[in-house]
Design brief:
Elements: H1 2-8, H2 10-19, E1 25-29, H3 36-48, E2 53-58, H4 66-80, H5 94-105, E3 108-113, H6 121-128, E4 136-142, E5 151-154, H7 160-171, H8 177-187, H9 191-207, H10 214-227, H11 229-245, H12 247-257, H13 269-277, E6 280-283, E7 286-289, H14 292-301, H15 319-325, E8 329-332, E9 335-340, E10 343-347, H16 353-366, E11 370-376, H17 382-391, E12 393-398, H18 403-426
């Protein structure tokens, strides 16, 4: 699907490269899952192939140490281009390094930052201060408009024609036109949802030699929406919107779903931001939530928004602690899922075949580098071991009967693994 995604975004890539010559700051915003990260990866490749730009990615994994990591990248760049400086590389500060690279190469440096909304204000100010150096550009992605003086590009969902082309190529024609329309309506043309739905349908086709019709597609999507990969994606997305926009986001969503008067909302900054990124727009001549899966999910859950982090979960009872520890987490029943630094974790006191398979599917969709399941110490049968080996899932056992102690030890274990992985990346 990546090739089709790139083909659909060539216009945006061309527009951004053209405007990098005219603007110091370029913002790429849009819905969760719209393809912002994928676009900047392709932009880096395209920029490298020109003789005008040097793209450098600032890695958010290192927090406030990101600028130290940037300095090391610049040193390596000087060595790679065989640029010799009179005072030596080690003694130079970040601005001087940037200035020397610009002078020696004659190129503009693009500092590329993914998900700038997750950065601390102090780090953002430090990055922006680098614009004092001649020929420095900043290109960043965000699901929240940040700077009024930036040149802004909002990524739109794929058109129906592009979605149909992707569906046909992915499913090799094993689908009816009405079923393709169902996929388009459910995905809303959002690449992440489209990819998840197509993965779901392709796996179904492996075991069923029947042409997909709208009835089959609708049932598979609704099933996944109730308890599957799509539900995990949606709850993660909703949690991110809540984390970034606060409870004002939930209030706006509830107002829209209840069909109440929205005249008061139009003055709210959060409402304007959600319109800017495309989460809220016009559907059938009225203002609505443009993300169809979030709309369907909240409509189903609006009378019972107790689980999945909207209110404190009785089983875990540690919602505040989870918010401090992890960026992306989801509570599903009695289980906890965490996705951070490209690692996927699931805390499940009891383990079974269905949980293992669902975890493997979610890991596949999120493209997680490693997957860990933390559970109570038990004997695994041969079937569970086979699934683990096939999907390369690591099982970590905790030997404790007390619920609260089990939860604390599990969170501690996840934190240790994430810290060690971050240290490993930093030492590369």
């Amino acid at each position: 699907m990546n090739q089709h995604t790139y083909s659909a975004r060539i216009k945006e890539v061309t527009e951004i490269l053209r405007n990098l010559k005219r603007h110091d700051i370029i913002e790429i915003n849009g819905l969760k899952g719209i393809g912002k990260t994928f676009l900047i990866q392709k932009l880096m490749t395209s920029a490298k192939n020109t003789d005008k730009f040097i793209p450098i990615l600032i890695n958010s994994s290192f927090g406030l140490n990101s600028l130290i990591y940037l300095k090391e990248s610049l040193k390596n760049l000087l060595i790679l281009n065989e640029i010799n400086l009179d005072n030596g590389i080690e003694t130079l500060d970040l601005r001087t390094l940037l200035s020397n690279i610009v002078d020696e190469t004659g190129k503009n440096i693009i500092l590329i930052i993914d998900d700038l909304h997750d950065y601390k204000p102090k780090l953002i100010r430090s990055i922006l201060s680098l614009l004092d150096v001649k020929n420095i550009r900043i290109l960043y992605t965000s699901i929240k408009p940040l700077f009024a003086n930036s040149f802004r590009i909002t990524l739109e969902p794929f058109s129906k024609d592009i979605v149909y082309e992707i569906i046909n190529r992915s499913l090799r024609g094993n689908i009816t036109k009405t079923a393709m329309l169902s996929i388009y309506k459910w995905s809303g043309g959002i690449p992440l949802y489209l990819e998840a739905i197509l993965l779901l349908l392709n796996k179904w086709l492996l075991f069923n030699r029947v042409k997909l019709d709208d009835f089959i597609v609708e049932n598979l999507i609704r099933s996944s929406l109730n308890d599957g990969v799509l539900r995990a994606l949606i709850t993660n997305n909703i949690r991110d919107y809540l984390r970034i926009y606060g409870h004002a986001f939930l209030g706006i969503i509830k107002t829209l779903l209840s069909k109440r008067d929205i005249s008061g909302l139009e003055r709210k900054r959060t409402f304007k931001h959600l319109i800017t990124i495309g989460l809220i727009g016009i559907c059938d001549d009225e203002i609505c939530i443009r993300d169809p899966l979030i709309r369907a999910y909240i409509e189903n859950m609006r009378d019972n928004l107790v689980s999945h982090g909207f209110k404190q979960n009785k089983r875990f009872g540690i919602e505040r602690k989870l918010r401090k520890l992890f960026k992306n987490y989801t509570i599903v029943g009695d289980d906890l899922r965490v996705f951070q630094e490209g690692l996927l974790f699931q805390v499940s006191r009891k383990l079974n075949k269905d949980k293992l398979i669902e975890f493997a599917k979610i890991r596949d969709v999120l493209n997680a580098k490693k997957g860990y399941i933390i559970c109570q110490k038990t004997n695994l049968d041969s079937e569970l071991k086979s699934i683990m080996n096939h999907w390369h899932i690591d099982i970590l056992f905790l030997d404790t009967e007390d619920d609260e102690k089990f939860q604390e030890n599990a969170l501690s274990k996840i934190g240790d693994i994430i810290r060690k992985y971050s240290d490993f990346l930093q030492n590369l």
